[in-house]
Amino acid sequence: MSPTSPPARVVAVVVAYNRRDLLSEVLEALIAQDSPVARIVVVDNASTDGSAEVARAAGELVDLVELPRNTGGAGGFAAGMAVALADHDPDWIWLMDDDTVPTPSALRALLDAVSGTDVAVAGSRVEWFDGSEHPMNTPRPKPFASAGERRQAASGRAVPIRSTSFVSMLVRADVVRAVGLPIADYFIWNDDFEYSTRALRGRRGLHVPASVVVHKTRVLGSTDTDPGERFYYEVRNKLWMFRRSRSLAWWEKVLYGGSSALRWLRTVVRSHDRATLADGWRRGWRDGTRFRPRPNSDALADLGRASDAVRAVEPA
């Protein structure tokens, strides 16, 4: 960024569901950023623990979007990004869950890495309480990145990526307008994998280790830690992605599809409740092969202001 250029206008989007104490910590951390955010859109997914009151009490920087039903992380991010675009004119949108606490310099490090480049998406280093890198949010390096791209990334102490997670993802607003919103019907799991690869297909992305956020999950584990009934979403959404989405080239679908099959096998082998996983796999396979996700205008209908914003970003 040159000395005469205006600062980038960044709107943060936080999806909240029944973690009011953590949400309060997240909002305090966002308000205290070295590089100020322009607004914070908090999407409350029909919480029952007073999360909306926490957001409302955080001050004028917060724009609270209260949804009458739980739309999952995928629906919440789609609604929040749509409201950010419709009402707050961002240059960048910064995405995170309500258990993602950014360090004071997290946004500044992201902006320093993307300033003066054509980068479309940037992600932070995600740590757990103890400072170790959180395996749940490890980005996928970009296969076959050119030597020039690797050098340019390395000059800013960054790494070229093919995907990153919604636990601190910075995405250019014009790219969101070009590729659309996350697919709300994914509900949970793989929504960020599908969306980040869609946003990065034919574009550049960076993992920025200097930008650090703390993902305050209850346990430190990767995505193949025993998921129980949620295994259904892992299977269904991966099948939707590999069969329906245009986010990946055919050879990437082969590569990541094989990786997913091995991950599923590891999950089953390590599980103490294989019957639940088997049921999730059967239902996920059935729904992933027989059905397809609905358009966001249908999945996010009857949500008032959020529905209007979704239709404005993704007209039929």
UniProtKB/TrEMBL annotation:
- Pathway annotation from the record: Cell wall biogenesis; cell wall polysaccharide biosynthesis
This protein's name: GT2 family glycosyltransferase
In this protein, which residues make up the domain named Glycosyltransferase 2-like? 13-171
User: What protein family does this chain belong to?
Assistant: Belongs to the glycosyltransferase 2 family.
Q: Which domain of life is it from?
A: Bacteria
Q: Per UniProt, which keywords does this protein have?
A: Glycosyltransferase, Transferase
- Give any GO molecular function from the UniProt entry: glycosyltransferase activity
For this protein's source organism, the top of the classification is: Bacteria, Bacillati, Actinomycetota, Actinomycetes, Micrococcales
Among Pfam families, the record links this protein to:
Glycos_transf_2
